[in-house]
Amino acid sequence: MGIVNVTPDSFSDGGRYLDADAAIAHGVRLRAEGADLLDVGGESTRPGAERVGVVEEQDRVLPVIASLAAEGAVVSIDTMNAATAVAAVAAGARIVNDVSGGLADPDMLSAVAASGADIVLGHWRGPSRDMYAGASYSDIVREVTTELLGRMDAAAAAGIAPSRQILDPGIGFGKRGAQNWDTLRALPQLTGLGPRVLVGTSRKRFLTELLGDDIDLARRDLATAVTSALAARDGAWAVRVHDVTATRDALRVESAWREDA
Questions:
Q1: Model pTM?
Q2: Is 151 a catalytic residue?
Q3: 80, 199, 212, 243: which has the fewest Cβ within 10 Å?
């Protein structure tokens, strides 16, 4: 899943693709590099980010989604707003990627159910402006699993069949340093819950905390590719990344290793 941020303030590429033409060209390039899915978002979810108005969010993403979908790309909309999700599906998106798992907007699950789109249910403990307020766990694996099961039940109750659900353990969302590694180690357990699992580690803070805050993008992307390959080994359905080429290479190596084993 290649990331297309149509925002001025995303933590690693904010502003580069705010112009619709630049975002579309970036999505086309990611697809040429091997992205199976393109995740288009108009609101940053970096730590400390403030919410964006729905009209502004839609003005950013809808032209990009419509153009990429017309090119034949499988597009997901990265949003926490039900109205944007509905508009994005009408523009051609097939997946709604809600990092809040339907908690930020009480209309989200019913809206997605009616739209026919699939949904990514992220593990979330509160808004980005206070990202780490909920980063307190007595048993993070048990609590993340229980909370994702709750999101699955809520989605099913709204009319979204398990086959349309995708789980995201929310790496970096309400989790500090080692808590992310604990969550990643639990991927075999999370993939055993039934739905597909999406993993997003790309360029996130816990990687720089491990390797050094001064590492450049190339090293962050290498670390992302390694964690993505390990996630694939443990059953992840998809990985969400900025650098598609490096990750595709890592996934090919992991696949070859597994097939020869």
A1: 0.92
A2: no
A3: 212
